[in-house]
Amino acid sequence: MAVLAALHPGTVDSALSAPFRGAEIGRLAEEAAADLLRVLDGLSAEATGGFYAYSGEELPW
Fold it and tell me: DSSP assignment, residue 16?
């Protein structure tokens, strides 16, 4: 089975997010990657074409 989906990792602690982060903003890349893999593992073929948050919530395009 193959699934093609867009994923939103949330705000990840990186050079890209540095100008926007406050004391509580941003998460480790390892945490974001683990969440995205968990979401991918839970998707079925019917989810193809969807956009999903790191929490598994389906997001609007």
Answer: T
At 32, which helix (H) or strand (E)? Answer: helix 29-42
Rounded to 5°, the CA angle 18-23-27 comes to 65
- 59 backbone dihedrals φ, ψ, rounded to 5°: -105, 150
pLDDT tens-digit map of 7-58: 999 988 887 777 776 666 778 899 999 999 999 999 999 999 999 999 999 9
Starting at the edge strand found earlier in the chain, the sheet holding 6-8 runs 6-8, 51-53, 58-59
How far apart (Å, rounded) are the C-alpha atoms in residues 36 and 23?
23
pTM of the model: 0.82
